[in-house]
Amino acid sequence: MVVDAHIHYFDTPRFAENLVKEMDGAGVDWSCLMPTLEDSTWEYMHLTFKDVTNPFVLEACRAFPDRLAGGIRLVPTEPGAIAELRKFADTGFFRFVKLFPPQQLPADDEHILPFYEVCAEYGLPVLFHMGQTNGEYTEKQKRTRMHLNSAYANPIHLDWVAGMFPELRLIIAHNGYPWYLESWAVALAHPNVCMDISGSGPWTEGIPVVYTALGGAAFIPIDFDRVLWGSDNCLPQKESIARAVMYLRQMGANKQQRTNILGETARGLFGLR
């Protein structure tokens, strides 16, 4: 099975239908689909997103229930966030939760603990955007434009969370670029932590370079069976897969490990059939 474990809903005509067609052409069985950050501007992609929220993803997953698995994106400290989490989780179409620390708080802020407890109650893995983040969004309460805070997206913030919630599966998106070492260290210390290799450019191209330069497996014992692949809308899925395979070969991942990364691990993590 091949699973794109990291892809966003874009507000374009017939997005879900076109995504499934792309999946068919790339040999992708499932895509894990999540909203974008509302009313945000992404400088590196020259894109602006308005209101692509959880109901959009729910509608897409209902239309393609055997191809699209939903991710619930919420700001965990906003009023009503836990009620919203339960509401969407109870639909049965969502397989994970997506949090975006650069928007408001680091992942280890104590105010988020009740939210994690509910994620654990539902058995929903939590995918964290991690790494340098260049963009802006509108702060809802102040109604002012705010620049995203990359400091909140350092993977080391997950070290405490992983220890506090050993039953909760956590996913470090983008291998935490540029904090690769922090990502590898947190994953090494906590068996409930996974990493995804999603995106393009330095988010992924730097991973094998840094890994090899630091001595590879002799210095960084990565558990490749806790790594996921995702396109993150940055490249066509077929091209993203080809690049991921190239990087993984450079890092010494064997054929079975590459198979797991491209989908088998995600299948088990998200309960896909």
Account of the protein in words:
An 8-stranded parallel β-sheet has the order 1-2-5-6-7-10-11-12. Strands 4-3-8-9 form a 4-stranded antiparallel β-sheet, with no helix packed on it. It contains 9 helices and 12 strands. Strand 6 (94-99), helix 4 and strand 7 form a beta-alpha-beta unit. The protein has helices at residues 15-26, 54-63, 81-89, 113-122, 158-164, 180-189, 202-213, 237-250, 255-270; strands spanning 3-8, 30-34, 40-42, 47-49, 68-73, 94-99, 126-128, 135-139, 144-147, 170-172, 193-198, 227-230. Helix 1 crosses helix 8, helix 3 (81-89) packs parallel to helix 4 (113-122) and helix 7 (202-213) runs parallel beside helix 8. It has a single domain, classed as TIM Barrel, CATH 3.20.20.140. The protein has 273 residues and is an alpha/beta fold. Helix content is 37%, strand content 20%.
Task: Provide key terms for this protein.
273 residues, alpha/beta, 8-stranded parallel beta sheet, 37% helix
